[in-house]
Design a protein that fits this description.
Elements (H helix, E strand, L loop, with lengths): L2 H13 L6 H12 L5 H13 L4 H13 L8 H6 L3 H16 L13 H10 L1 H10 L1 H13 L4 H10 L9 H10 L16 H9 L2
Helix pairs in contact: 1-2, 1-3, 1-7, 1-10, 2-3, 3-10, 7-8, 9-10, 9-11, 11-12
Length: 209
């Protein structure tokens, strides 16, 4: 497994709901990344250290409060581009088709744009998976900023994910919203059959500030 694939797999584990085996997952990530150089692995290990002593039930409650009770911090990537519109259903179909074309099927009980699933796919199929993440770079950056504003340790995980993608992160929220309006960098446009990021989604996001 390549360094970037290992980082994506680790981030997928850390962003999954902390169920009964969460501390075993933390141990797996620490073992996998302990000898891996780079700022990304340091950020993921810092997250592991921040939550290592927290009981599982408390971690679960924090996870729900962080990701499930705020639209600004949702882990569903197409929400940032399509919001609660009919177009989002079409985007989800494209995600499922992408997985299927590369021999992978997402669990039936989770939407295919769920970030932990997208990261696991990127670890298994680095080329199309990384391109899909880059297509949704604006969503990842907005989530990273929202988690930073929330003072959540999960901000470290999102920062690590963004660092695995080409190009610098937007300097601020206004720049991230511009990325939502304008779409991904030109060198990645057309790599995947995802729609351009829509101005309506940016406007909706600004209204929720």
């Amino acid at each position: 497994m390549s360094r970037t694939a290992a980082l994506h797999q680790a981030a997928s584990l850390l962003l999954s709901h902390p169920d009964e085996d969460v501390h075993q997952r933390l141990d797996l990530v620490r073992d996998a990344l302990g000898a891996l150089p780079g700022q990304e692995s340091a950020l993921l290990l810092r997250f592991c250290a921040a939550v290592a002593g927290v009981p599982q039930l408390e971690l679960s409650a924090r996870y729900v409060a962080t990701f499930d009770r705020s639209r600004r911090r949702t882990l569903h990537l197409t929400y940032y581009t399509d919001g609660d519109t009919r177009r989002r259903g079409e985007a989800l179909v494209r995600w499922r088709r992408l997985y299927r074309e590369h021999g992978w099927q997402a669990p039936a009980d989770e939407l295919p744009d769920h970030l932990p699933l997208a990261l696991e796919f990127a670890a298994r199929s680095p080329g199309p998976g990384r391109a899909a993440l880059q297509e949704h770079r604006a969503a990842l950056e907005l989530l990273r900023m929202a988690l930073t504003d929330h003072r959540s340790p999960y901000a470290d995980v999102l920062e690590a994910v963004c660092l695995t993608l080409p190009g610098p992160s937007p300097a601020d929220r206004a720049a991230a919203l511009h990325l939502v309006r304008s779409g991904p960098p030109t060198e990645t446009v057309g790599l995947l059959p995802f729609p351009a990021l829509r101005p309506q989604a940016a406007a909706a996001e600004e209204n929720r500030r």
